[in-house]
Each structure stands twice: as structure tokens, then as C-alpha cells.
Amino acid sequence: MRFKKLENWLLPPDLKAKIDNAPKPLGSLDYDRWGYHRASAYKAAAGVRFLYDHYFKVQAFGRENIPTQGRVLIIANHSGYLPMDGALLAYSLLSNPYAPRVPRAMIERLFTNIPYVGTFFSQIGAVTGQTQNCIDMLKQEEAVIVFPEGVRGTGKGFIRRYQLQRFGNGFMDIAIDTNTPIIPVGIVGCEEALPMFGNAEGLAQKFGLPYFPITVPFPIPTRVTLNFGEPLYFSGPIHSEDDLEAKVNVVKAKIRQLIADAQHKHGVK
Amino acid sequence: MTNTLPCLLITGAAGALAQQVIARLRDKYRLVVCDSRREVSMPEDIPSYRVDFNKRKFEDLFKEYHFDGIIHLGRIGSNEYSREGRYNANVIGSQRLLDLARKYNVKQTLILSTYFVYGAHPLNPAYLTESAPLKAAGITMDLVDSVELENLSTIYLWKYPELNITILRPCNIVGPGVNNTLSQLLMQERTPVLMGYSPMMQFIHLEDMASAIVIAFEKNHAGIYNIAPDDCVPYQVALSLCGCKKLPIPSVPENMPLLLAKLTGRELLPPHLLDYFKHSATIDGSLFSQTFDFKPRYSLKDIFSHYKHLKN
Fold first, then answer.
1. What pLDDT does A267 receive?
2. Which of A187, B39, B268, B271 could share a disulfide with B192, CB 3.0–4.6 Å?
3. Domains (ranges, CATH) in chain A?
4. Residue A10 above 60 pLDDT?
5. Interface of chain A against chain B, CB under 8 Å?
């Protein structure tokens, strides 16, 4: 009885129901093709819920823009030396009062090769950032989170906070090929929560990492704001790389604007 | 049995899979079976030979029986023979088989390959389709013969369409009597796992695989097909469901599993397949399912319960 109470406290039944009701093509043992496992999703949701509600006191705006069903790409700025923004964004989609979604997240390729880390990420729904994986998931009508800046965003350092780095163009190709709407998101607060003051390049090279952050020993409990924009629709054909980049820049400009709005809301709240 | 029935050659007759295929086809065809490893005991109406594909005796079979079709299941697995022996049997031997099939006007050839040819790689998509590159040869020299057999078969498939070649790439075939690497691991009481890794895997029951081979042969749509159910399971979960206790092997640094195997004098995991216990190589079996209207009968739970019962 006590255990049940603790379980409900950690993961309220309504949140659990949202995970249960998510239309995922799970196999007979509750795993999907990429390793997503429902029971692991419960644990991750319970853990991130604490961070979302109490540690970072996240406020989310514009969640009514997220489609209730069907394929969608969630494109956001990436910040902080750890992908905490991905976890908060995913929880925000799950706890969305308008239309809860259990999203997938495309993660850095280096994570897949790290023992335990790769397996853990797979079980909670993260997938190696590989084009075909993204296309296959969208064909299964998933909501997929992509950070087109990749490690350029997380490793840019505190001094360049909120300066969008170069976007990879792949997501735009995928969006057009699969006829998927894009929801741009501006995230504010993770730059301050996980600030990277320097990069110990020697150590990074030794461990085969893109950077080794010089930082505070734990995430700073700053408020995080997520600002979801309205869906953007793009269509082809794409005539050249410049054409593709122009479309990517539309998304980039929108995210820049959403960040500015979020900073304003962040400041006045 | 009458002589009007079409005549089939089935290679690799000593294997459990071939036995299942033979049982399903013996009433519909005149069967001739052979194996390069040993002479297999068969009922009187099924001639059985121990024959090396590279020897003249093999051609004599073609002259004598005028085969209408060949089901080539005699691929030597990566847990058998030396690297050179496998190359001779799988690549040189299979080329001779295909040349003889041309020479003696065999109308149809089915070749059993393996999903190992795709290679296990951290960047593999979760749905490896038939057109995905075959990366295995770049990962380990021990799978070169499997990849070359595929390449060779594909060349013959396009160059000699009259051979009607069907190449099947199944996922892990398991079940009673199967003696491949995965089946051996699932049978163990204490099974090695690489710490921190549990790649997604697919399993097909021996009987389902035999049915798939029979359907593919009878419907005869030449081409390359993956065979796998849509259901996947992480390796370590599969072991738990089979009642195996886990024997954790440190996976870092990279050569640690090999070093430990040397120190303990025991082959913990096949060295050339180590990557398959780290990274997923899950295949998309939808083309085969749709083309041949095939659906496996056995679920993962059915498959694993067999291995669990073995331990009780």
C-alpha cells in the first residue's frame, strides 16, 4: 500500500496513463524497434518530473500549437553542456494539457557507443541521430525532437549563450520528404543552468568527446522557459543546397524570435 | 512416389533447418540431399550424399538427377570450420553450385544467407532494408565469406535471370536442434553479456524459418529478402526470458573481452561477433512478409520458453 502511494507520488496515474495511451508500435515484450520500453519511460518521466516541476520550475508557452496526433518535428535551440533541454522538452510534450505526446529525441551519435548510456537513452525513447531512423519514426506518426545545432550548440560555451550556431540541414530534407510540420521551439534557461566556462580540450581528446566542460559541479536551479511556436509547413522540390539553407534559415529566424519572446516572458514572470 | 515429380537438391542436409525443410517437401518433390560435413541418414526414398561442392562427384549428382531446383542451405556458419575452410565451402563451393545450376538448366535456386552480412554498427538504422550496404566485411574478416557469398549470388541473380535465384537473409534462427552461435548462448546456464550493452535482436523459430523457405521456393519470386518478425527484444532481456544467468564481461577497454577470454581459456563470446552484442542489426522483414504473405507462428515468448524448459 505504502509502495503504491510512493509510486503514485513519483509518477501520478494520469501521467502514467499518458504514456500507456501513446500510440506506439510496441512488440509483444513492450519494446519497440529502437529499444523504447514503456516501463523505462515511466522511470524517466518520474525523474524528469521532479526536475521539471521543482528544480528548474519550467514554464511552457504555446503548447496548444503541438498537433494532437500525427507526425511532427520539434526543432529547438540546444544549450547547456548536457542535453537537459531535451529531457525537459520531452517532458513538456508528455505533460501537455492540450495533447500529450510521448516524443522521440534524436541524440548525438557518440552516446550510442557509450556503455549503459546508449542503452538507457534507447529505453527512454532517444534514437541515434541518423536520417533513416528519423524518417522511419515519422512514418510511424511519432513526434520527433531534433536539435539541428548538435554539439555545436551544447559545446559553444557560456560566453556565446543564446547565439544560434550553424544548423544541420538534414531535418528540412526529412520534413519535406515526409510531409511533416515543424514546431519551432525557443528554450531559455538551460544556458544558465548548465554553463560551460571553458573546454578542457586535452581531456576531451583523451576520452574521445567533442568537449570536456569546465563548469560548476551540479546544474544550477535556474528557471527554464520553453516557448513553442506555430507549425511551419515546407514543401519541395528543393533545387539546391542554397534553396534548402534558405528554408532552414526561416526556422532559425523563428527560433531566434521565440527565444527573444521567451527571454522577455522569462524576465517579466 | 513417381518420377514425374520435380527433383530438388537440398544442401546442408545435416542441419536442423534442412531436416524441417525436407519434412515439408518430401511429399511434393523427389528430393536428393547432400552435406559437405557428413553423410546424413535419410529415409530410403531420399538419396543422401556426403559431397564436397568443389569435387567432381558433385557434378555427377547433377548429371544423374537432372535437378529442377536447388535449395542451398549448406552455408557453413561462422562458428564452424576455419576462415579458409569457410571461404572454400561458402564462396568457391557456392560458385561451383551456381555454375553447375547454369550448365544443367536448373530452373530455380534458393540460397540461405544471414543478417550478419549487414554488420553491427552504432549508426545502423532500426529497419535495415535489403538495399542497405553490407558492412560486415569491414567489421571482421571472419564474415568475409558470408558477404562474398551474397555478392556472388547477387551477380548471378542479375546476370542469369533464368536461374531464378532467391536469396534469404534471416535474423537469428533458434529453436530445438539449432546449433548456431545464438542458440548455443541461449542454451547456456550462465551466458556472457557485455557490460552496458544490450542490443535489440530478432529471433525466428526454426519451424517458421522452414516454412518461409518452402513458401519462398514454391512461390518463386526471385530477389533478395530479409526474414524477421517485427518483434524485437534486447539481448539481455532475451537471456532472462530463457532462464540464463548473466556473466557480465567488462566492455571497456575494447579488447577486454578478448583478453579475458584468453586469460580464462574460454571463448566467452565469439570474437568476430562481438559487435553484434554491442550494437543492433535489426532487419526489415516487411518485403518478404508482403511478397509471400508470410507471418511467423511462434512468438518470442514461445521461442524463449523452449530454452527455459531446457534448464528445468
1. 67
2. B268
3. 2-268 (3.40.1130)
4. yes
5. 25, 27-29, 31-35, 109, 112-119, 122, 127-128, 130, 132-133, 136
